[in-house]
Design goal:
By secondary structure, this protein is an alpha/beta fold. It is built from ten helices and 14 strands. The strands form two sheets. Strands 8-9-10-7-11-14-13-12 form an eight-stranded mixed beta sheet, covered by helices on one side. A six-stranded parallel beta sheet has the order 3-2-1-4-5-6. InterPro entries: Glyas_Bleomycin-R_OHBP_Dase, Glyas_Fos-R_dOase_dom, Isochorismatase-like_dom, Isochorismatase-like_hydrls, Isochorismatase-like_sf, VOC_core.
Length: about 325
């Protein structure tokens, strides 16, 4: 599954313009003769997606499109802007039209994650990019309205900034549903991948389960520490992060690349003394290991990495799983 390549801790959900102006029958699009039924139908699906992201610790960012009654920038245009093709200017600042729909407003409970935009794109002259940088975001799940204007513009902007982009298609509504197939084809070809909300929710559930996330570091026992340092540091170019001694007196050379070297290999033991993975749900993982009869060497216990669990694999190797957790 494509989503499996993403790291939930580096992912954010972007909810675009789920406002009365674009989703409510009495909003600007509705009174202008646009069928807002697709947008209204998407509201409960968006709500479920938002709730799932929040439960998984994935940040949810909300855009609010806001316009001024008098806009000098648009006024100088010689050709009519899209706002002139509606019964009125949509989402005027301070109006009901500009508010998030009632069903979703309670979910936007962190004001720092709600931002204003004045044009189609969520990146154009907004603080979104700074927010994503501070959150450490690398991938964006995108939903909202409308498909062929604000959503597509934002997908393009995100892709051009090298974000991994996922368009959650059943959470995106178009003013003309017949335009959607071509839009989806373009998005999937050029800007990212398409996914249904059920796929995203299942991915989040699996990703938040207690598990190993990636290799953290490993410790090799070597017969000649000087020769090993000459090979890994001198030849391969690894860099030394620290030199210290274990509690049993053996020396340790730890590298910035995650490899540790020590000597004094126990008689009959293999070269791999210690293997460590970054993980999640350490306490739950310990319970799972105990239920399956896996030997727990020690832990969960506080460590330099937060919380660590030490297990024995089928070959007798010690495997550590650690996470930035306190319990």
């Amino acid at each position: 599954m494509t989503l499996a390549a993403l790291d939930p801790q580096r992912t954010a959900l972007l909810v675009i313009d789920m406002q009365n102006a674009f989703c409510h029958p009495e909003g600007t699009l509705g009174i202008s003769g646009v069928n807002v039924a697709p947008a209204t139908a998407a509201i409960p699906i968006v709500s479920r997606l938002v709730s799932s992201c929040k439960a998984a610790g994935v940040p949810v960012l909300w855009s609010q499109q806001v316009h001024f009654a008098t806009d000098a920038g648009r006024a100088r245009k010689r050709l009519p802007s899209h706002t002139h093709k509606r019964a009125r200017v949509s989402a005027l600042a301070g109006t009901w039209d500009a508010q998030l729909v009632d069903e979703l407003a309670p979910l936007a409970d962190d004001p720092s994650l709600v931002f204003t935009k004045h044009r189609f794109g969520c990146f154009y002259e907004t603080r979104l990019e700074a927010m994503l940088r501070m959150l450490g975001t690398e991938a964006l799940l995108v939903c909202g309205v409308t498909a062929n204007a604000c959503v597509e513009t934002t997908l393009r902007e995100a892709y051009l900034r090298d974000y991994d982009v996922v368009a959650v298609t059943d959470c995106i509504a178009a003013v003309r549903p017949e335009w959607e197939p071509l839009a989806h084809a373009v998005w999937g070809q050029y800007f990212g991948v398409l996914a249904r909300s059920d796929e995203v929710v299942d991915w989040l559930a699996g990703a938040s389960a207690p598990r190993a996330l990636g290799l953290g570091h490993l410790l090799l026992q070597v017969t000649d520490l000087d020769a090993a340092e000459a090979f890994y540091v001198g030849l391969l170019g690894l860099t030394v992060r620290k030199r210290e001694a274990f509690r049993d007196g053996r020396p340790l050379i730890a590298t910035n690349e995650g490899l540790g070297l020590t000597n004094g290999r126990p008689e009959g033991a293999g070269p791999l003394e210690h293997l460590a993975f970054r993980g999640s749900g350490i306490a739950a993982l310990a319970e799972r290991a105990a239920a399956r009869g896996v030997e727990i060497v020690r832990g969960p216990e506080p460590s330099a990495y937060g919380l660590s669990l030490y297990l024995t694999d089928p070959d007798g190797n010690v495997v550590e799983v650690f996470a930035d957790e306190t319990a």
